[in-house]
Fold:
Amino acid sequence: MIFNEDSRVKIPSILHLIQLGYIYLSLKDNSWDESTNIFRGIFDKQIQKINPGLLDNDVQKVFDDVSLLLENEDLGRAFYKRLIDQSGTKLIDFENFDNNSFHVVTELTYQKDDESFRPDIILLINGMPLVFIEVKKPNNRNGVKDEHNRMQRRFQNIKFRKFINITQLMVFSNNMKYSDEDTQMLEGAFYSTTNYKKPIFNFFREEETFDLEKLLQPISDETETFVLKDTNLLSIKTNKEYQSNKNPKTATNSITTSIFQRERLKFILRYAFAYVEEEKGLEKHVMRYPQLFATKAIENKLENDVKKGIIWHTQGSGKTALAFFNVKHLTDYYQKKNIIPKFYFIVDRLDLLTQAAREFNARGLVVHKVNSREEFSKDIKSTEVIHNSSGKAEITVVNIQKFKDDPDVIKNNDYNLSVQRIFFLDEVHRSYNPKGSFLANLELADKHSIKIGLTGTPLLGSEYNSRSLFGDYIHKYYYNLSIKDGYTLRLIREEIETNYKLVLQEALESIKVLQGNIEKKKLFADHRFVEPMLDYIVKDMEQARISMNDNSIGGMVVCDSSEQAKMMYEIFQNTYTEQTNAVLDQAAEPSASYGDKNRTESKVKTAQVILHDIGTKQDRRDWVSDFKAGKLDLLFVYNMLLTGFDAKRLKKLYIGRKIKSHNLLQTLTRVNRTYKMHKYGYVVDFADIQKEFDKTNQDYFNELQSELGDEMQHYTNLFKTPQEIQEEIEEIKDILFRFDTDNATIFGDQISEINDRTEIRKIAKALNNSKDLYNLIRLSGNFELLEKLDFRKLTILSRLTNDRLGLINTRIALENNVETDNILNTALEDVIFAFTKVKEEEMILADELKNTLGRTREMLAGNFDQKDPIFVSLKEELERLFKKKNLSEVSKEDMEANIKALNAIYDKAKKLERENQLLRAKYDYDAKYARIHKRLMETDPLTDTERKLFEALKGLKDAIDTEILQNSKLLENESYVEKMVMRLVVNQFKREHKIDVTARDVKRINSIIVKEYMNEYNGNVA
Structure:
């Protein structure tokens, strides 16, 4: 049985939303403003309801203001601010959330000019379309991936700005459980907010237990029948698969319960969004689910009068963002109690103060900085909650580095009970010694204050630990889940190659011979040692870019001393910058080959040293920003940036000195942030940290075991094990054994003889994984494989194999006469352009061709009548266009001709779609009867006008639907359906509408109608 996403996912989800309190609206009986998709009747009524005394003219002004805000090129920031504002005319009543209206509609068209899309399910709050849900049938991986790509194109389309700006939440689901093997978020139900570039999908793992019997309202048979009739799916009512998918615990229904039940939706709309000024522009972030549950856990502790505790969220999970979300949430929480909260964020280093301030500023908070005991003493005694005159939300960031050991105690006996101080203490695994003065100062400064410790690596030990200082855990989020959720990467430690170890050892010996027993710090900072070390780093970084097929990744070198860092920077400037200029001069000439070009682009060209005594504070801030933005290839550091520094593109960390205990784990996780499609972060070990590394981990695991018992298991995935690496290496070696991997031409010839898609997929997977192989081999010590494979060719071999796979897929789709839906669901623009050869100056033209092909394919794929002769001819025209040429050889002239031909197909397909939709609307949007109508008009029309046929078919539709309503199980017996429809056809055509039909005509009508109903009931594609 073929599962249809409408009947198997969409309708059950709509019914589940009705059980959650949403009212189903039929688009047939309603109207809306097409520029915003706001349902004006509902909007106007609700605005007056939640703002008593508002006149009709006032409501019109509110709508006009909203419509104008949605025009902004600000990702909906101004509209969102207006949406949650409770001080003036409200758009949503958050104080009495049930006072709002909640509706669900399906297939609402979002249209501007000739561009449009139709989400499967849309949720209206007070008539505003704030949420939409896209569903796919299970195991339809391409469907989900294509949906990702479609949404990305829609987000980038300026015509859809108003729709993107008004949308707050989106859910994408193929109704499957999450898979631990799925790294691309293709299986399951995911949530996201909007973005002008690319949506960021998030897992949602519910942590609370719901009483579904209390939460879900029973749904009446009348309501269910109304939804099925309105969506023209009455026939599926008794279908077993449909009944099964009404289960509230399916993936789609579960995430719907988690996010869209009223209390949770109220919380998310008001507190779960942040507009963030990133290096590359404005982004909109939504709370990750661990941040949401941590925020709720904090509130729960406060309700139970617990005033301190620890949030243990693994590194990279967004603890600064969590503090920001809680500033929003706790401000309202305390204001309801007529208490004004005052927020502090405590750090223990100046660079962390700067970074925290930057993160909070980027999210719109006003930041007040405190960097001395005197400032802190003054601030803690002040009854003022904010320091800015604008009244904006504020947080005070305090650096305790310079005064944490000051013996003086800050005393504040003048407690202001209307002010609640809330301290977020960052990284509470370090620097908070109970024997020091800072904790005492903090306690005595305000005994009523709330202290929330944030950590990714709790300080465990017998003398004192995080929990004894700050209380029990409020919420925990471990590394294993963070990896599964795609927020952090696993780590791989690489030893430096043996030949380089010998070079460095010889350098050390020569320095000792010349200078005798000199201080170790000077020894490692000598240019004769630094030079070969830097040579290795630069070559390794360049090779990593080639192996990973990503020239945007950056590296950071943790030097043995500040002197070594300065020497490394000096040598880099004198040696590699000049070399880069020479390479750039040569690069003006045509590239000799793809490999040569790739090596040139992978060159390490720029670097910067980050030390407290180099440059001004602003210089250092600018250099860090430049690195994050990809303007610098390498950073040389000593103590700075080892903790709290987040740069997603940092994927190679070079450790040049030993780092102790939890500081080591902190440093290593600088490279665990997700970036593009990378699977690992890499740590290159110059300092032989393995012993300390193993000791730290063993101690950490032992203490976790004694402290937390079974919770130790949550850290088992922190590092990739040698056994796992060895297994991957052996598998790839076996798969590539029979092929010539030294000669790309021969390799290309060998795989060109393979026509089996399964076999070529296996090879492609191995070569795609081998982008990480170079690093894995060095880690495992399996160096003999380096002699058998030229890793500089791996990218080329991978590309050749993907070309072959793409060509096989395209041939299957376009040449083997497979079903139409497979042809149109194949993302031709992705397959073709994976191996289209174009020159640099033709890239714009290629992009235009790709976009034109994409919209043409989507226009045809969206057609509900794919047996229409016009549709068939257009599809064949699309096939001919790409059958006549070798797809791997597309010239500029071919592209221009193809764009013209595609535009002609698109225009015809668009005209056909418009005509189809007009006819479908006549039959109450029932696609079945639009298809039946067209089939009966195509050959031997039964009537002299379409109107007469419509009147007969409309009467027949009402009669058949009435029979199904009275006995929905009749569709289980096809022979009975045939007899019933035959009787109704004769009655409607001959008796009611006086159409002279023969027995042959009746049989023909009967066959077409029965086939449509049985296809619908069985979930078959029409």
